[in-house]
Amino acid sequence: MRIEIPREAERFGANHIYGVQKVYELDSGLRQDAPASENSVIQNLPYETLYEIERDMAIVVPIRDERLKLLEGVLFGIPHQCTVIIVSNSRRAPVDRFKMEQDAVETWSRFTQKQLLLVHQKDPFIARALAEAGYPYILDENDLVANGKAEGMIVATLLARILGKRYIGFIDADNYFPGAVYEYVHEYAAGFALSKSPYTMVRIAWHSKPKVVQSQLFFAKYGRTSVVTNRFLNQLISYYTGFETEVIRTGNAGEHAMTMELAMLLDYATGYAIEPYHYIDLLEKYGGVIESAHPEVMQHQVNVFQIESRNPHLHESKGEEHIDDMILASLQVIYHSKICPEPIKREVLRELYRRGILSKGEEPAPPRIYPALLHVDLEAFRDALMRAPYAEQLETIAQARGYRRRLPRPTVTPPEGDGSEQVATPA
User: CA-CA distance, 345 to 149, in Å (whole number)?
Assistant: First the structure.
């Protein structure tokens, strides 16, 4: 891949948020094909570099009752060297959608010989493993994992961690273009290849979102939710730096990836708030406004890359109510942030009132926040899952690369104290 180096960066404490980078060549060939010298503003990342990173990457596909053809298309687009983790929260009755997904995935896996793990979010073995590992926060009143995208992502992150993965990426299951999925994974790897920090996040800025307008295809540049979310996140940064910025363009990026070191340190917001809350959590924890519980991260810095895709992003339209729900979820995490000043809070309320999402005098409810996974007992989690029907799959995937030299497992130095500052309200 040939990709431009970042044109700009906003430094907010230890956070380095890089401006959107453009890709100039999706496949720049092998290392032996690379020219002796490169343009100083263009970075050439040979195929071998991306391949090695992707071998250590788990790609997570959260799914809930999406069309099987869409799921299959997403799977077709994920490079073979990646491990795929599908966390389904699809219905089991009256039609067993999960069984249909199992059948489709089993057939696909047989043809491709792919490393893949499919689990249901309500699997009692997973719930029991979470309880035994000391992470009951995402369990509901039935002692099963609660509904929600964030809850599924947390489960997937822990699965990727016990499989020894160094990187984890997320791709929504309702993507219509397998080619876009393939591109996203390479761009995740490109961001990790460019980073010099073990605490790195890569977020995809869509090139366009096609929609039909008056019987013609119109390639919109920005989503209606992301325009609002990005504006307020940029205002928050500008308030503290004193310089207006538009650096954040990926406030609602469902397509994003992280090093495992960073994934284990982040708190998670439930519902549609999960993606914008990643930014809020980074600004709060490592922005220098509030004292950080992780001084070792402050020394390393946190890199956030935003890479513009070349493929258009087309996903299922879910209506105006869905847009309003996403805007409310995004703005409530900003409004209730520990570092959100009163002027921006007033602006958030005006926006919600103007759109009719809230009535005058109402305030957005506080978001539900789950604590970071840093102190989860991974051995207990792994041991509990060894009693699950898919235990053999877990072992096979974990040992699949034993024939080659293993890269070091991610390590994170726990903060001093008992971690009580990261307590969230249990489900």
Answer: 26
Q: Distance of alpha carbon 98 from its chain centroid, rounded?
A: 23
What DSSP character marks residue 276?
H
pLDDT at 249: 93
Q: For residue 426, which amino acid is it?
A: P
d(CA 349, CA 338): 17
Q: Is the dihedral of CA 283, 286, 291, 292 positive or negative?
A: positive
**Predicted TM-score (pTM) of this structure:** 0.89
Contact (Cβ atoms closer than 8 angstroms) between residue 271 and residue 300: no
pLDDT of residue 407: 35
pLDDT of residue 207: 75
Given a cut of 70, the residues of the chain with pLDDT beneath it are 35-39, 208-223, 315-319, 401-427
Integer Cα distance of 385 and 400 in angstroms: 18
Give the whole-angstrom CA distance, residue 382 versus residue 388. Answer: 10
User: Can you state the angle between helices 391-399 and 149-162, rounded to 10 degrees?
Assistant: 60
CA distances from 257 to 48, 95, 134, 138 (A): 19, 33, 25, 22
State the Cα–Cα distance between residues 332 and 71, nearest whole angstrom. 31
Encoded tokens for 63 = 């799914």
How many angstroms separate the CA atoms of 124 and 111, rounded? 30
Question: Exposed (0-12), middle (13-18) or buried (19+): which is 14, by Cβ within 10 Å?
Answer: buried
Residue 35 is predicted with a pLDDT of: 66
Rg (CA), the chain: 21
d(CA 209, CA 255): 14
Neighbouring CB atoms inside 10 A of 279's CB total: 28
Do β-strands 268-269 and 369-370 pair in parallel, antiparallel, or remain unpaired? antiparallel
Task: Name the 3-class secondary structure at 277.
Answer: helix
Residue with the two structure tokens 């993965």? 165
Helices (H) and strands (E) in the chain, counts: 14, 15
Helices (H), 13-46: none
Tokens 């792919």 identify what position?
A: 114
8 A C-beta contact, residue 341 and residue 239:
yes
**Which is nearest to 338 in space by CA: 295, 296, 285, 293?**
285
Closest to 6 (Cα-Cα) out of 160, 200, 272: 200
Q: What one-letter code names the amino acid at 226?
A: S
Whether the CB-CB separation of 210 and 312 falls below 8 Å is answered with yes
Measuring CA to CA, which residue among 38, 13, 20 is closest to residue 28?
38
